[in-house]
Structure formats: structure tokens, C-alpha cells
């Protein structure tokens, strides 16, 4: 396998990969590569090496190349892609790779993997896909981490049952427009008795969307690994995104035994519901999130039930064994390639 990073020179997470993984970063080949040059380099790689499969995960260069030359490329390699959700502009219109490229590329794609089933339906309705095109979407739920697990659950529930002290709420992710940090700030303003711990920093925007946040928001900046954070101190996990697939951070939080409050956007309702957490249907209303948080703090018995329900959901649908079996079925992998530890 060769991992080609086509658009960015950000490589600070390469240590997540298995030792010996072969990686090519196009930005390291020359300064100021133009989009057309990135596409040509990628085309040269495909024509030279003739890979068995070329799988696109958020590469603008490959989307552009397939939309222009999909017929020719499909004779050299099997083309696949991953898509998780639409992006949305400030006016609420869908944008992103699916809007820009899917209709012109889908004929040449063997399959489109998504971490949620909702996007298949939404994409078909929004883009007017035929039944054959829609059938190319395959749902592959991401697995929970093999090294994570419950952190301080009994102590957390005992704190909630005791009903004393300030409550500690965790928020983690990019402090960018998609994650609605301004909504987090408004929730915090309405609940000065709660401390909100923010792990993460802005990545895509130039403006700090938490600038001027109330003093009960405590910021820690970027982090490397969720399970290295002070999870045992936290009473709940809060998520406020405007759009998403099924974010891995929610799988992490559930695996850690944190009660999760999250909006009904994208595929989140496939993971978070009234058995596994607190799903916010009125997801633009800060009071709706606060009501859920206060229910968590006041009802330790109900909170335990939903923590247990979340653990069961992960065991049933987000285990490595389930992922391996589904990946083998969807992509036709030899069984020995899919059975190892992640």
C-alpha cells in the first residue's frame, strides 16, 4: 500500500500509521505546486504503478482527475472513494466534494464507502442519483479503538449521585465553523455553574471562534490522543457540530464511558439515541443542550443506563471484528488481510 497525501503538507499524525507504511507527500516534492501539477503527478503514479485499487479519501486532486479522466483511469485501476457528509456554506447550501464531483465521477467508481447510512439517502435525494448510482454507497461503521476503554465510570456516577460540586463538561475537536464553537460559548454563558473544558484548536479558519468566550470555558489547545486526556475528571461529553457523518470522537467518548450529548445532524442519530445518549433534535437551541446536561447531572440512574446502552451499541456495531467482516464483504478483501489487529 502507498499512502499519497495530495493536498496538504501536514504530516504530524503520520506516527498513527503502522511501522513501514509507505507515504508520499506531494507538497514535499516541490514548493508551490499548482492544482494541475498535483493532478498530473497523481496521474503519473497511477499510470506507472497500475495499482490494483485507488481509494480516494478527501483528495481534491483525485476527485478532479476522476471527473475528467475517469474512463481512462478505470481501465488501469479499480476506483473507490469515501464520503461522509456534505459540507455547508454559511447560507446553509450543501457544498464539498460530493456536490462538486460526485455526479461527474460516480460512473467510474466501483463503490463509495461511508461511515453512516444517512448520507446515502441524503446524497441520493440532493443530487438526484439513480438507483444504480445510489447502490454504490456502502456503509462501513468505524471501529472503536482497540486500546481504549471505560475511564472512571463508577466514580463519575457517584459524583453525579452525590449532587455536590461544580460539574465538568468536555468538548473536543477542531475549533472551526463546522463544530459551532460559538454555540458552545452561548451554552456556557447560560450555565455559569458548569465548567466547560475545550480540547482542540482551530485548523481551517483564521479567526478564533472562541475569542471572548465566558470564563467558565477552559481551553487546552491541541491534543494527540483522546484516551490521554483527563477523562476521569469529566462528567459529560458535549458535541455541537452543524454537520457530520458519525464522528470518531463520539465513539471515543462512548468507549470511555462518558455520557454523550450530541446534535441530530448527519449520521449521528445512528449512534446517539435515547438508549445510548442524549440526542438534541432542536440542535440550534443552546437551552436544549443545557436541559440534556442537567438531566445527566440530576439522574445518575438514567445516565448509567445510557452509558451501558452506548457500550452495547459499540460492541454490536463498532467492534474491530464487525469492521473487518464488513470491509471484507464490501471490498472483497482476502480474509487474511482483514483479520489482524488494527
Count of the domains: 2
Question: Under the CATH scheme, which class of the largest domain?
Answer: Alpha Beta
Instruction: Give me the count of strands.
Output: 14
Strand order in space, largest sheet: 11-10-9-12-13-14
Please state the oligomeric state of the protein chains shown.
single chain
Largest sheet: 6 strands, parallel
Q: What is the CA-CA span between the terminal residues?
A: 15 Å
Helix content: 25-40%
Task: Work out the strand percent.
Answer: 15-25%
Observed structural traits:
single chain; 342 residues; alpha/beta; Rossmann fold; six-stranded parallel beta sheet; four-stranded parallel beta sheet
Explained architecture:
This protein has twelve helices and 14 strands. The chain has two domains: 2-143 and 321-335, Rossmann fold, CATH 3.40.50; 153-312, Rossmann fold, CATH 3.40.50. The radius of gyration is 21 Å and the shape is globular. It is α/β, with parallel strands linked by helices and 342 residues long. The strands form four sheets. Strands 11-10-9-12-13-14 form a six-stranded parallel beta sheet, with helices on both faces. A four-stranded parallel beta sheet has the order 3-4-7-8, covered by helices on one side. Strands 1-2 form a two-stranded parallel sheet. The model has no long low-confidence stretch (mean pLDDT 93).
In brief:
This protein is of the alpha/beta class. It has helices at residues 35-49, 60-74, 97-105, 118-127, 131-134, 153-162, 181-189, 248-255, 286-298, 300-317, 320-331, 335-338, and strands at 2-5, 22-25, 53-57, 78-82, 87-88, 94-95, 109-114, 137-139, 167-172, 194-199, 217-221, 236-238, 260-263, 278-280. The chain has 2 domains: 2-143 and 321-335, Rossmann fold; 153-312, Glycogen Phosphorylase B (Rossmann fold, 3-Layer(aba) Sandwich).
Amino acid at each position: 500500500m502507498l499512502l499519497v497525501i495530495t493536498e496538504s503538507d501536514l504530516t504530524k499524525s503520520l506516527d498513527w500509521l503502522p511501522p513501514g507504511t509507505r507515504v508520499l507527500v506531494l507538497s514535499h516534492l516541490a514548493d508551490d505546486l499548482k492544482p494541475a501539477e498535483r493532478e498530473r503527478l497523481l496521474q503519473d503514479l497511477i499510470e506507472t504503478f497500475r495499482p490494483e485499487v485507488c481509494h480516494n479519501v478527501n483528495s481534491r486532486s483525485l476527485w478532479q482527475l476522476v471527473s475528467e479522466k475517469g474512463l481512462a483511469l478505470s481501465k488501469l485501476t479499480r476506483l473507490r472513494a469515501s464520503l461522509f457528509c456534505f459540507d455547508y456554506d454559511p447560507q446553509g447550501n450543501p457544498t464539498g466534494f460530493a456536490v462538486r464531483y460526485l455526479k461527474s465521477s460516480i460512473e467510474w467508481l466501483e463503490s463509495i464507502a461511508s461511515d453512516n447510512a444517512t448520507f446515502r439517502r441524503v446524497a441520493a435525494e440532493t443530487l438526484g442519483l439513480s438507483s444504480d448510482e445510489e447502490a454504490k454507497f456502502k456503509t462501513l461503521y468505524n471501529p472503536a479503538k482497540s486500546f481504549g476503554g471505560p475511564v472512571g465510570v463508577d466514580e463519575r456516577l457517584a459524583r453525579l449521585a452525590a449532587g455536590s460540586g461544580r460539574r465538568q463538561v468536555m468538548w473536543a475537536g477542531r475549533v472551526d465553523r463546522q463544530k459551532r464553537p460559538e454555540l458552545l460559548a452561548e451554552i456556557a454563558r447560560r450555565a455559569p455553574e458548569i465548567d466547560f473544558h475545550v480540547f482542540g484548536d482551530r485548523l481551517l479558519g483564521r479567526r478564533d471562534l472562541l475569542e471572548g468566550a465566558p470564563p467558565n470555558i477552559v481551553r487546552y489547545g491541541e491534543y494527540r490522543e483522546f484516551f490521554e486526556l483527563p477523562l476521569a475528571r469529566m462528567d459529560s461529553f458535549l458535541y455541537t457540530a452543524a454537520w457530520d457523518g458519525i464522528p470518531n470522537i463520539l465513539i471515543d467518548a462512548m468507549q470511555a464511558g462518558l455520557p454523550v450529548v450530541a446534535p441530530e445532524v448527519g449520521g449521528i442519530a445512528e449512534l446517539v439515541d435515547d438508549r445510548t445518549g442524549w440526542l438534541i433534535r432542536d440542535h440550534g437551541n443552546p437551552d436544549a443542550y443545557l436541559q440534556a446536561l442537567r438531566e445527566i447531572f440530576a439522574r445518575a440512574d438514567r445516565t448509567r443506563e445510557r452509558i451501558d446502552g452506548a457500550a452495547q451499541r459499540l460492541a454490536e456495531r463498532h467492534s474491530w471484528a464487525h469492521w473487518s467482516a464488513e470491509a471484507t464483504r464490501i471490498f472483497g478483501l482476502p480474509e487474511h488481510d482483514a483479520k489482524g489487529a488494527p
